[in-house]
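Write out the 3D structure for:
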Amino acid sequence: MKILVVDDQAEMVKLVTELAKARSLDVESHSDPDKAIAAVKKNPKAYGLAILDYDLGRRKKTGIALLQELRKLAPELRAVMLSGQGNIPLAVEAMKAGASAWIEKNFDLSDKLEANIARAAELSSVMDDLARAQEKNRELTARVDFYQEELYRKYRVVGQSPAMKELLQHVERLAPIPRPVLIRGERGTGKELVAAAIHQASPRKSGPFVTLNCAALSEGLLECELFGQEENAFNNAPFRRGRFELAHKGTLFLDEIGNMPYDFQQKILRVLEYQTFERVGGGQTIKVDVRVVAATNADLEKEMKRGRFREDLYDRLAFEQVRLPPLREHREDIPQLAAHFLRLLASEVPGIEPEALEPEAEKLLAGHDWPGNIRELKFFVERVAYRTRRKTIAAEDLPPLEKAGPAEADETSGGFRQRVAQFRRKLIEEALARSGGDRGRAAKLLKLSAQELAEIVEGMGLET
């Protein structure tokens, strides 16, 4: 943001420059109002704040007349009027012309200027965020129907392993229940696809499926995106409906909920409990009927202990939890997933040759750990496919991949007892992860009693 100063007093320009420099803001100054008009006319969007002296000298425009001309060139320009003395009628006239403040040049001038510069900088930052979001979400309304039948078929959950069958059965059981769902899993495991599957299997399938990545937005922008804003909630801000309103009678998917700012979490909790909210800049209470499905790859239990995630919000979201297994836990699905991604790419990009993978290539893919999970596998298969000029992808077409799975990684390091201890620890950690930290469920998975598991966990010094 650049500040425009129009004042014939050098000490005033110096004061504003020092205040602006403290906030890393640029200042452009003019003593001649006509030169200031010419500068704004040349680039109307360059300035976020104008600081104008009312008395600009004999035979020159007054600050109010200058402001009227500047507002014609840049209607969104925020302005502060300075005066050597108090004059209520002139202050009223300046406000009518579009000034946001009338400041007398007295003992507290510096404090008042600093407050107005800070306010203008904050508003400019918010407006920049809004502009970027509007650019990214230009097709937001069209995306409301993104997961309807045809695209849902295209992005369906793929897999026939016991782990995936259990997952889909879980989805079918919980989909009709009109309560929040918390999806947990490592990055790239397909959390958004499972959220879409829950929506499609629910009575809300004919309603909208709306998504938002909470980690990508600042708190101010997050509030506008979720709750919407009234016209002129900020300087010249347009009216817009938020994601909660767009998701009425449907499902709202909040991705990366663990990265939501702590203070903002209280507002989400209120909407979850009462299904009501107000748009930014508005006072009307809006009531909606929205099912929230949230997702995270964060360790929310640790985040709550550290005071970064609200326990009451966790309790409200976790009516039911769905854990997505990492790809290394259902390697038998890798050939089917790879073939699925090949078909998708061929349908999207003309000229893609490969139609299948040879058995040895499938075996190599299934032997890799895929720390980026399904997303990593998808991009890998696509890169190989566009480089291959045959109908099938052979093992030699694949870049080098390690064959060792996660349980085999430490096979050659340490002695017998060390390797046994490492293997036991891994079994315990995986069971706790699969159960979402619930020791009772983890004990059942391991076929241990709760007491036996507690003793092992404490002996290993594991945090749960």
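Residues 144-151, 403-413 have pLDDT under 50 and may be disordered.
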